Amino acid sequence: MGREAEPPKRTLRKEFLAVRNGLTDDDVRKTADALAGRALDLPELAQARTVAAYVSVGREPGTLALLDALRARGVRVLLPALLPDNDLDWGVYEGEGSLARVRHGGGRMALLEPTGEHLGPEAVTAADVVLLPGLAVDARGMRLGRGGGSYDRVLARLERAGADPALVVLLYDTEVVDRVPEEPHDRPVHAAVTPSGVRRFR
Q1: pLDDT average, residue stretch 37-65
Q2: Which UniProt keywords apply (predicted)?
Q3: CA 56, CA 180: separation in Å to the nearest integer?
Q4: Within 10 Å of residue 79's Cβ, how many Cβ atoms?
Q5: Pairing mode, if any, of strands 129-132 and 166-170?
Q6: At what angle do helices 25-40 and 64-72 cross, to 10 degrees?
C-alpha cells in the first residue's frame, strides 16, 4: 500500500532538476572541487585500476577534476558514448582534449564523449569502480536516474557478467533523501559521494 503514496519518478526528477537549474556556475565549480576531493579519498578508488565514469553536463555535479585526478594517478578511465538505442559504448579518457560534443535525440541533448577507439558495451565489466550519474539516492542506496535507462542496462550487464565493481553515485548534498520510488529492475548503489561527505549503503 505504501508504494502508491510515493511520488512518481517523473515528478521527482522535475523537482531535483529545478533545484539544479538554480545553481550558479560558481556553485557548480566549487562543488566539483569538493566532490573530487571526497571521491579521491575513497578506498575503492585508491585501489582501482579501471574506473568507468562519465563527463558531467549542465548543472550535474562536476566530474572533470575527478577524471583528471584519476588519470594522473595512472587509473584507466572509461567514458560512455551513447548509442542510438540508449545503450552505452565505452572509450578511454585521454584528457579533456580527447572529448567531443556529440548531439543526441535530434539535437536536443549534447554530451561530451571520448573521440578515440570505442571498446564496446561490455568494456564496463572490467571496471573496479563504476561512477554513476543520478538525481538522488535514498537511505537504501536506491538511485533515481534521469529516466533514459542507459545505466539500468549497464547495471544489468554487470550482473549478467558476474562483475561486482563498487557502484558510486555522485550527487549534491540535498540529493541524499529518505526514499525514492523503486521499480523491480532498479539496483542499489554501494555509496554516494557529495561535496560534504560519503554515505555508504553496504
Answers
A1: 95
A2: ATP-binding, Ligase, Magnesium, Metal-binding, Nucleotide-binding
A3: 22
A4: 25
A5: parallel
A6: 30
